[in-house]
Give the backbone structure.
Amino acid sequence: MGIFIDRGNLLFRDARRKNFVDKSGVIEILNDSLDSEQRFVCVSRPRRFGKTMAAKMIYAYYDRSDDSHYLFDDLQISRSADYETYLNKFPTIFIDWNRFSRFDKTEILAKAQKEIVEDLAKTYPFLSQKSDLFSALVEIYEHTSQRFVLIIDEWDMLIRDVDLDTQTAYVNFLRNMFKSDAGAQIFSLVYMTGILPIIKVETQSALNNFVEYSVVRPAKTAPFYGFVESEVESLCLQHNMNLALMKHAYDGYIIGDQPSVFNPYSVIMSLSDGRYGSHWTNTAAFSAIETYITIDADNVRDKIIRMLNGESVRVKVTSFRNDMKNVETADDVLTLLVHLGYLSYDPDSEMVRIPNTEVAGEFENAVADADWNEVSRAIKNSNTLR
């Protein structure tokens, strides 16, 4: 069993054992993209919205090293016409950038490639010593004519909170991998997932050959990340939990055509410990809010006060550059908070609001020590979210 290739289906098998919700329909979307101009796909959602779970599932489906019929034969994807055609048919590579967080961020790109290439050489002994991943994949393709499925989790780790040189080197690495003619040859599918959509260079995506499904523009991926109400209702019945209390605490996200989406991590944690408290502090630091609410401070402050009082406010999401270092206006701040999961965005009205009591509590914590008398009054006076 490999580290990055031929990993088998163990992680998805473990995921199926308890409180599993079938999101395998997303594989049908990916199957439709295989070996086409739409083979490069990026899905972005807030933390703990099921991205890594989906990546494990997708890997188990395509990976050639295990027979995964017993994991998928009872799932939605098994009813697809192409189910058998692509099941366990590809050499599949899984890269989780979090795996390399032990390295200094200026060294991650080089050291990660070295580890991945060394693992590939165990499967492909003819592979010559190369320092970069792309050259290694090209060499494998030239020897075998095999096309890869590549899955990248936390794709944006080297976009968030890094220096400009590291960010630039990483963007160039991705462009070299995916925007060349050779890249089009060696990949049947590239699936990337992370918190942020692909960073913009000026007004264009840095990887404009990718089909993007973000939390503000999820298109047909909307039902497959986060739990919809019927799924939470079923889990509540299994665990004798109260759906209304679950909705109050963790519902409130509008994602595309899905009007009622729950934070899945918080739901699962609530089922586990039998209470409806906040699990948000385990997923993101208060500083995620504190750092940005001081940008365009008066404007942002006014909008947050209104949202703490239960209102929705209008936001222009198109100006955000998908880069946490280039946040300049109130619209940028609010759009970033949507991608981080602190706000819910309604694409029809182009309005944002605080989705539920769990997140409202995080806003209260974030501004508790700030000199925001208006916010303090809003918190005390508002019972809209309580």
About this structure: Residues 156 and 194 are 6 Å apart (CA to CA).
